[in-house]
Design a protein that fits this description.
By secondary structure, this protein is of the alpha/beta class. The chain has 14 helices and 15 strands.
């Protein structure tokens, strides 16, 4: 519909376990560089994790880091990097017309665990509990920290959408731009999950925490010998604008968001429902006015759990099984599961394919699980294809939330 504003991506800021900017991240994905390493967490000791190594002091002072949260710091870094990448004249921007929409899987566990550990040293005397705890743990913290840092006075909030949150962050940004509520959106997702021992302990109790002698091979979606999730931190934030505004200022454009959908399984706390996942992808295609054959790359959500990977493959096979030129990959094999940041990071890692025509692979697949044997699944080595016009990104999460986003190569 011509009356619906076209929404485009004009800036990208990210930190991932294997890169702190899109060129570095993309290079890692094309050369097989994993960001998973040995890590130690409270009470559990040695685990495996995707750990980011960005310059925390690039946009914050030490005092601000101490006052805030890791999720907030990641969001601040990514948002400022996205702004710089966009080329927007920030000093001339009406910041009451700027919105911040950041997806998170969970927030506050890290800070609460830290405070409990601290007062344990004082016989649990709560007078030693930090007065910073409340602003650190409120659900809007990561987005709110961005507004404080960047002096943004428009709307901000976080989107709690489990591991679909990265997709939901920029869906929300798109919707607010189309509604005319804002003129610029910082949108994406962040994760500080590796700093809470609880997430590791819970996955281990569930039998879903990955182990491997070689950390870089621990995240193994689709492999017959996969044994669980690698927990990771990270973040990715886009600047989103209406196309008319982006063109007026001569912005570079990474892609246009043309389709999206979100639905619920309503069937299980943790096990994905392939029928609902298929319906979600189908709804995104319908919104974009596309057929399955039009999609060139599908980035899967697959987390390397036994049943989760299979359920998603059933959904993809049901909708795309007859497609001869739709290629399929997975980014978690490189970085682990970045939770609230997963959808945003995984889509972003594929966007350069619009220019270079290369599908990054799924790595660490030594023995493909027959139940995960999808047509055109790109394994272990990049695949060059003729023409990339449409990329679909799947993200889903606990309590049965599914999301799909479709980005088109920009064509004026």
């Amino acid at each position: 519909m011509s009356s619906v504003p076209r929404i485009v991506i004009t800036g990208i800021g990210l930190t991932a376990p294997n890169g702190n900017a899109l060129p570095e991240f993309r290079h890692s994905l094309l050369t097989g560089k994993s960001g998973v390493q040995a890590y130690s967490t409270r009470y559990m000791g040695a685990v495996l994790a995707g750990v980011c190594n960005f310059d925390e002091l690039r946009y914050q002072k030490k005092k601000e880091l101490r006052r805030g949260t890791r999720a907030g710091s990641i969001a601040i870094y990514c948002s400022n990097e996205a702004l710089k990448d966009s080329g927007i004249a920030w000093d001339k921007t009406d910041r009451s017309r700027v919105g911040v929409y950041i997806g998170v899987t969970e927030h506050g566990n890290v800070e609460t665990e830290n405070e409990i550990a601290a007062i344990k040293e004082y016989n649990y005397d709560t007078k030693f509990w930090s007065h910073h705890h409340n602003p650190r743990t409120v659900a809007n913290n990561p987005a709110g920290e961005v507004t404080l840092n960047m002096r943004i006075v428009g709307p901000h909030y976080t989107i709690g959408a489990a591991c679909a949150a990265g997709n939901l962050g920029f869906i929300q940004g798109l919707q607010m731009l189309r509604l005319g509520e804002v003129d610029l959106a910082f949108a994406g997702g962040v994760s500080e999950s590796i700093h809470t021992f609880g997430i590791f302990a819970s996955f281990k109790s569930q039998g879903a925490l990955a182990t491997h002698d070689d950390p870089t091979k621990a995240s193994r979606p689709f492999d017959r010998d996969r044994n669980g999730i690698v927990v990771s931190e990270g973040g990715c934030v886009y600047t989103l604008e209406r196309l008319d505004d982006a063109q007026k200022r001569g912005a570079k454009i990474y892609g246009e968001i043309v389709g999206y959908a979100c639905n619920s399984d309503a069937s299980d706390f943790v096990l994905p429902n392939p029928e609902r996942q298929m319906q979600c992808m189908g709804a995104a295609l319908k919104k974009a006015g596309l057929a399955p054959d039009d999609i060139d790359i599908i980035n899967t959500h697959a987390t390397a759990t036994k049943l989760g990977d299979i359920q998603e493959c059933i959904a993809i096979r049901g909708l795309f099984g007859a497609c001869k030129s739709t290629y399929i990959n997975n980014t978690k094999s490189f970085i682990g599961h970045a939770m609230g940041a997963a959808g945003a990071l995984e889509l972003t890692g594929n966007l350069p394919a619009f220019q270079d025509g290369i599908v990054h692979p799924t790595i660490n697949v030594d023995n493909l699980d027959p139940d995960c044997a999808l047509p055109n699944l790109v394994l272990n080595e990049p695949k060059r294809i003729d023409n990339v016009r449409y990329i679909l990104n799947n993200s889903s999460g606990m309590l049965g939330i599914n999301s799909a986003v479709i980005v088109k190569r920009f064509e004026a």
